[in-house]
């Protein structure tokens, strides 16, 4: 059992696969005394916390113990106003206007498995034996507010999940103003913060900077997790790198506004916090009500960022993603967006599908523009009825023609939006987020439907499920193309308007739960102008995401590398598009674009009917190769070897779980004259086994491949790339 409680010492010892997390009750306060490499249970775990008397500026809650100050005590769920002057984990406003509460130990239980989070996505267990959960209840006797802190420790993962439930056992409504999911105090500040930032078409670039006294923080106030910052932050030792050193990852399973901050205090300790964005948030918690905060997944790695990522990958691929498609190989698709934009008809679509069949492609995705009278992005969102001008015999007929051509049929929707020019908006102008008497600010000439409303969700469920039930749809691309403004709901009373952004996300999750449960055969892909909502929350409902609207091979190296810090390759959509690239105007070879896209969930996003014969041959061989390799790419362990953020060359590889097979990708962006000789050292192989190169037949020892490396003189010219497939000679 990985959770131990020593009652006499008041110590909880949580052991994940390779890490320990220790909580000690000190004067009833839940103190965080250790998080790091695994410690032996049974050895002396007392005295881990040094306490000294500080000045009068660090007040003492217990008069007899001057070494106790909440301003210096590392705490599990720190409160505001009772002498801890650092950032609190939660804040409340009480009926009388006061803001003071104090949470102290009330009770605890240790349960097998992992309880679900009501209404929210979360990592799960399939068998109770996979994990244990500590439920630690802290309570404030004056108000009746209680916090149930939940910690799950897994036998097979180096991860600990945390979440918080606030319960109002009092008689009066409590207004929650801040409810974070985790607060972890480290005894020093010798850390860098690493996070993923960017913009539309430039998502999840890696940022790393040294912590210093004060705050280092990121977050979103856009109503979704956002292109700009991902709900993830890692603290790592300055000497830690891809392969070695201590890393602590914090990933929030949520798709809306969030905050992630590291605060270095006056004594050089670090408080790491992550959770719902407190800005413009409030929640009225009535008597007997419970507020469930989202889950944070904490990963400790002593093997650098690579070790952290592989834990997230395995956990998220197998215990966050769900459904029939979780463990299945994903189909190779062609999407018509960059091929036709809004300008297509059924015959054009069928011709692309027929060309796809010749090339071995398995799924056709009809993107935006098939409904209402949508000839550009200025109308029809909300009217999910096929446009008979483009599809004279209807959507079902088109889907059947595509299926007859030998491909599965996929369809694009943007359900969360409404165009002012739509029948839906004309009949229900109050169904969008808005504030009475104010402008309704448009983005892409569209408004955001108010998913906090049940009637709106029911409308969407009916509209979408009618189509899913009557048309042979195997795949749905669920898009969302703007952020929230004028956040307000026509149905929420005044004091609940600050709840709307979070209620929207809860409503979205409820709708997704209903739809994915009703149509388990459909492979759902999430999208938000590419990767504007690439987060663990969405992955719980949809096992893959369109990584970015930027399909340029060189740009994609950075985007996919950054995304892989947290997210498994099986969740990343990656397509070959036409050149010059539509986002950046760059021309790169088809082979380079193919190799980059083959490092994800592979597909094409261009007009297949326009290929030359030579291009058709290249594409056929890409498709054939990917069919053979996709199991390795989508379910193998990923090792990042050379970073596009550090140089001209990128390399990564995938290794099968039994280490009998590996696939190396190597990319060089620009040719260099008289360049240094390049050699790449592989990782993750068995040093004692021999591996044969599938193309060529050379045999190398795993030790040689990892320690001496492979000379890479195989690429030539700008935007050049190659891949090498290796198999254990005993198996090949
Ligand atoms: C944004 C998506 O990211 C694109 O792939 C495409 O589906 C467009 N929306 C369609 O409007």
Structure in words:
With 732 residues, the protein is an alpha+beta fold. Among the domains are: 94-316, Beta-galactosidase, Chain A, domain 5; 642-728, Immunoglobulin-like. The chain is 19% helix and 30% strand. It contains 12 helices and 38 strands. β3 (19-26) and β4 (29-37) form a beta hairpin. α6 packs parallel to α7 (500-518). The two termini are 40 Å apart. Bound molecules: (2R,3S,4R,5S)-2-(hydroxymethyl)piperidine-3,4,5-triol. (2R,3S,4R,5S)-2-(hydroxymethyl)piperidine-3,4,5-triol (DGJ) binds at residues 337, 367-368, 412, 479, 481, 527, 529-530, 546, 549. The site of (2R,3S,4R,5S)-2-(hydroxymethyl)piperidine-3,4,5-triol has 11 residues, from loops. GO terms for molecular function: alpha-galactosidase activity. Residues 650-726 form the Glycosyl hydrolase family 36 C-terminal domain. This is Alpha-galactosidase.
Based on the model shown, name its key terms.
732 residues, alpha+beta, Beta-galactosidase, Chain A, domain 5, Immunoglobulin-like, ten-stranded antiparallel beta sheet, eight-stranded parallel barrel, 12 helices, binds (2R,3S,4R,5S)-2-(hydroxymethyl)piperidine-3,4,5-triol
What does the main sheet amount to?
A: 10 strands, antiparallel
Structural category: alpha+beta
User: Which ligands does the model contain, each kind named once?
Assistant: (2R,3S,4R,5S)-2-(hydroxymethyl)piperidine-3,4,5-triol
Instruction: Report the helical percentage.
Output: 10-25%
Per CATH, the architecture of the domain at 94-316 is: Distorted Sandwich
Helical region count? 12
CATH topology of the domain at 94-316: Beta-galactosidase, Chain A, domain 5
Overall pLDDT metric? 97
What percentage of amino acids are in beta strands?
Answer: 25-35%
- The CATH class of the domain at 94-316 turns out to be Mainly Beta
Radius of gyration: 27 Å
- The CATH homologous superfamily of the domain at 94-316 corresponds to alpha-galactosidase from lactobacil brevis
Number of distinct beta strands: 38
The low-pLDDT segments are none
- General form: globular
Distance between the termini: 40 Å
